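S.,

Sequence below, as promised.
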Amino acid sequence: MTDGKTDVRNTMRAHDASPVDLPDEPGRAMGEGRRGLGWTGATILIASLFLLLTNAQALNGWAAEQTPSETMVRVTGATEGWLAATERMQVATPRAWLHGLWKRAQAARFAGQAPAAED
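The prediction came back faster than expected:
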């Protein structure tokens, strides 16, 4: 025999692992929770494609910083081509605009403060 307080404590203990209020699903069949995995995979894919399209500069910078080798020369050539293509399509414009804002903010100084060192 259980009292109402014990049932509440057991229910709360089962949900402690998640900050989200999860429904009780004691009868859920194996494999029914895979929708979340598909949603997560789709989200990662969309974010990756978005970054590939809008942040080719970072990809090119990474390739240029690697230890020189025959493979990295090909990779760097491919990233330079991708960067040029995104600039032609003007997909890189938002990143360039935001980078320009960042550089202006970085160079800003208070009255009487010495200029920023050049990179």
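The chain has five helices and no strands.

Coffee later?
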